[in-house]
Amino acid sequence: MNKLIDLSHTIEEGMITYKGLPAPLVCDFLSREASKQHYQQGTSFLISSIELCSNTGTYLDSPFHRYAEGRDLSELELQALADLPAIKIVIEDNVTAIDKRYFTGVDLKGKAVLVQTLWCRHFNSEQYFEGHPYLTADAAVYLRDNGVKLVGIDSYNIDDVSSDSRPVHSTLLGADILIVEHMCNLDALPNSDFQFFAVPVKMKNVGTFPVRAFAQVKDTSC
Prior knowledge:
- By secondary structure, the protein is mainly β.
- The chain has one domain (2-10, 54-218): Putative cyclase (Glucose Oxidase, domain 1, 3-Layer(bba) Sandwich), CATH 3.50.30.50.
- The protein is built from three helices and 13 strands, in the order ββαββββββαβαββββ.
- The strands form three sheets. Strands 1-13-11-5-7-9-10-4-12 form a nine-stranded mixed β-sheet, covered by helices on one side. It has a two-stranded antiparallel sheet with strand order 2-3.
- The chain is globular, with a radius of gyration of 19 Å.
- The mean pLDDT is 97.
């Protein structure tokens, strides 16, 4: 038997995921009350209108996010997004710069690598934006050279944002390795032997979009 574990933040109107980017706006395009005039008595529908920055909530970066010639969301095959063999790397609370030492000696090839920092506990607060854990440039190179398929993190950004350089995005997306940021609930996962899913909408000329990221794990309670 298997069980599913949700690894995504809930998106709601007004929330800020990344400082400086707009919060989502949600309103009625067709309200339930207005829809009643179109249908038989007792029947109504809601159609929502959503204004949403693509970097909202838990989202996936495709190569097109960083590189104009990279693959956009519509060009990603499902095999790169769903049912990926995955492992979890646990980072201690006092670590900010996550270097390649945390990944050495681990079988990484063909895996989705999820980095647990527990920084997600600060999500939706001012603390979330400052001093977050991130991967170093050498960690990104090591992950690339060892054949990972996807890298996820439960932090504000996979890169250090204190400068204008983004070596982790550049290295991973340049090698067609997908990134998932702003994850949560990674502490509910085992360290290995589970499958990972993070599927965005199939949209042309868009490089990032929210996902319902989740893991399928073996239910050992049975």
